[in-house]
Write a structure and sequence with these properties.
The structure holds two protein chains of two kinds.
Chain A (H helix, E strand, L loop, with lengths): L1 E5 H12 L3 E8 L2 E6 L17 H4 L3 E10 L2 E5 L6 E6 L1 H14 L6 H8 L1 E6 L10 H4 L11 E5 L3 E6 L2 H9 L5 E2 L2 H21 L8 H7 L2 H7 L5 H5 L6 E6 L4 E7 L20 H20 L9 H5 L14
Chain B lengths: L6 E12 L2 E8 L12 E6 L3 E6 L9 E6 L3 H7 L6 E8 L12 E6 L3 H13 L7 E7 L11 H6 L3 E6 L9 E2 L2 H7 L6 E5 L2 H13 L7 E4 L15 E2 L2 E2 L6 E3 H4 L4
Parallel strand pairs in B: 7-8, 7-11, 8-9, 9-10, 11-12
Antiparallel strand pairs in B: 1-2, 1-6, 2-5, 3-4, 3-6, 12-15, 13-14
Classes of the chains: A alpha+beta, B alpha/beta.
Bound molecules: iron/sulfur cluster and FE2/S2 (inorganic) cluster.
Chain lengths: ~325, ~260
């Protein structure tokens, strides 16, 4: 199904949806766009992708896996419940990141905590017609167009959005709110294609040396020693990455309490250190190399998908200002 | 079902193994089948302290679940401070275990330090199914004679025709046996090439593997049980990776040719 919605109608549409479920959308928050619970603020759907990925709403940096409650020496367990919500404004790169996480976390034994959140969310993606300067999704194959995975897809056509449905949940969303939508035609789809073609060219021009096929060779040739000397092992790149999913687990509370999962990073020096003190990856260069190998070799072997979606966020947070997608690094 | 929610297990017995390690018997309280293979491990929880991987030290043939704990960190200390009747969390069994179906009849078992716990499960399994195996030898080294695990069991193994060689790094007046690396025992015990099962520190594994290959063992038939930092035990958290493998799922037992570069 395809339809149009005018930009003025977005607020009443979201208001109608938010009467039934939580709506999360990018809005300006202290000068930068961020995904928050929408309460009528102006939307920030254009421009550079928000620094914190909406993937972190479905795979949070801290979440309760279950509660343990002690009674007469033995325990009962309670799982947190997930409420339905609409997440609006997810970019194609982040949609692809969800696909990679699905392929890693769904296979048996399934990560139930992730699956529960994922299944309770309706996702309205947006085509990336106005990509950021650090993006290389086109080279990686994850953008700027979204081809699958979402429930709805919005494309900015100036005064209005083209809306395409990708799932029964998406169709339902339009059918439940017919007052906001008007029919779209083939010419609207053609306009979308034209905008995305321009976006694609812009992205490729910025970093023409990046290619999926070239990565294995680039990793082989990279100078891990000097990169390791520059890397501060802060883990920022992997905490911000929508695909990185390393985690730690800890308990909070006795005798009753919560078992909590929190984000962790293979870039941190103690990540693989064992109780004995032995550390299989003691060197920052080794850890950085492992990070690339995991994204471009091990994850593809396991899932058929790259472990990077080309969003460029890691570069935006690197404390040492390493441009890890530059020609100097990817020789 | 939420994979992170553990079963509950009651501590039914605690035996002192050395001055700083206990053999703990667990009884699963939930109404489930708990079946395991030698070489697998479990994730053990002390609620409030957390969870860590512990290898299973018993053989499934004996209908008991035992773990051998040495005070090392927060959680192992928490387990050691528990008493009979206390309830721990247990997830698992995790990992692959030794590939008994593909191992040869002749088996050499080499252990170093606390890595011997997982091998005890394998040895007792072999003892209980003695007719399925040929020549079996156990070579085990610890730091001192006080650190040797399961001393009372060696005689029983020998009675089943298993060769047992024991060595310590540092001897003392009370010790009349061998002093030196486990490799020094490999010459003294006569063994024919077959499959090998090993668990111990990486230096030991590399030295023993080199020695075994010179004796005619194939590197693909030398099985190593690896230790790594683990959080989830189900291949999700990425803490235990070695190259493309998850030690918690693809391992902990690997053939030496697969993991030699990452030991
Ligand atoms: S590695 Fe960097 S560019 Fe690739 S998905 Fe992660 S944050 Fe984005
Ligand atoms: S322990 Fe989490 S992936 Fe192996």
């Amino acid at each position: 199904m395809i339809a149009l919605i005018s930009k003025e109608d977005m607020v009443p549409f979201l208001q109608a949806v938010s009467r039934k479920m939580e709506v999360v959308a990018p809005v300006m928050d202290q000068g930068t766009p961020a995904y928050v619970t929408w309460k009528g603020q102006p939307l920030a759907l254009e421009g550079e992708n928000p620094l914190v990925s909406p993937v972190k709403l479905l795979y949070p940096q801290r979440e309760v896996l279950f509660r343990y409650i002690q009674e007469c020496g033995s325990y009962t367990f309670e799982e947190p419940e997930q409420k339905a919500r609409l997440i609006l404004g997810v970019r194609p790169c982040d949609m692809q990141a969800l696909k990679v996480l699905d392929s890693l976390l769904y296979p048996e034994p399934t990560d139930q905590a992730y699956q529960n959140r994922r299944r309770s969310a309706v996702i309205a993606a947006v085509s990336c017609v106005d990509p950021g300067v650090g993006c290389f999704c086109a080279q990686i194959g994850s953008g700027p167009e979204c081809k699958e995975g979402c429930d709805l897809l919005f494309t900015d056509l100036g005064p209005r959005y083209l809306v395409e449905t990708f799932s029964p949940a998406g169709v339902l969303m339009l059918k439940e709110h017919p007052e906001f939508f008007t029919p779209a035609t083939r010419s609207h789809l053609q306009e979308k294609e034209r905008l995305l073609k321009e976006a694609r060219e812009k992205i490729v021009q910025a970093r023409p040396w990046i290619s999926r096929e070239g990565m294995a060779e680039a990793i082989k040739n990279a100078d891990w020693k000097s990169l390791g000397e520059r890397c501060l092992s802060c883990g920022g790149c992997s905490f911000i990455c929508p695909v990185c999913h390393c985690f730690s687990i800890y308990d909070q509370g006795v005798p009753d309490g919560e078992r909590v999962r929190c984000a962790d990073s293979c870039i941190l020096s103690g990540f693989s250190r064992m109780t004995s003190g032995a550390n299989p990856r003691p060197d920052p260069g080794q850890r950085l190399c492992n990070w690339y190998l995991d994204k471009f070799e091990y994850t593809p072997q396991k899932t058929g998908h790259l472990g990077c979606v080309g969003c460029g966020r890691c570069n935006r947070v690197c404390l040492s200002a390493i441009d890890r997608w530059s020609q100097e690094v990817l020789k | 079902m939420n994979e992170y929610i553990p079963l509950q297990a009651e501590i039914t017995d605690i035996d002192r193994v050395t001055s700083d390690s206990y053999l703990i018997t667990l009884q699963i309280l939930d109404d489930v089948e708990f079946d395991y293979r030698p070489g697998q491990f479990i994730m053990v929880s002390v609620f409030g302290l957390g969870e860590c991987p512990i290898s299973i030290a018993s053989s499934p043939t004996r209908g008991r679940l035992q773990i051998c704990i040495r005070r090392a960190g927060k959680i192992t200390s928490g387990i050691m401070d528990s008493m009979i009747g206390d309830v721990l969390g247990v997830r698992g069994p995790c990992g692959n275990g030794f590939p008994l179906g593909t191992m040869r009849e002749n088996i050499l078992i080499v252990g170093g330090g606390s890595g011997f716990a997982t091998l005890r499960g394998l040895i007792n399994y072999i003892v209980d199914k003695r007719d399925d195996f040929g020549e079996v030898a156990v070579v085990y080294g610890a730091r001192t004679s006080q650190d040797l695990y399961f001393m009372q069991e060696y005689k029983g193994w020998q009675r089943e025709g298993i060769k047992v060689g024991i060595t310590v790094d540092v001897g003392d007046e009370s010790w009349t046996g061998n002093v030196g690396m486990v490799t020094s025992l490999l010459d003294k015990i006569k063994i024919s090439p077959g499959s090998a099962a090993m668990c111990g520190p990486p230096v030991m594994i590399n030295a023993v593997a080199a020695k075994l290959m010179s004796m005619g063992f194939y590197r693909s038939e030398i099985y190593v049980s690896m230790e790594r930092h683990m959080k989830c035990g189900i291949g999700k958290c990425e803490h235990c990776t070695v190259g493309p493998y998850h030690v918690c799922q693809d391992g902990p037992v690997f053939s030496y040719d697969k993991v030699k570069d990452w030991l």
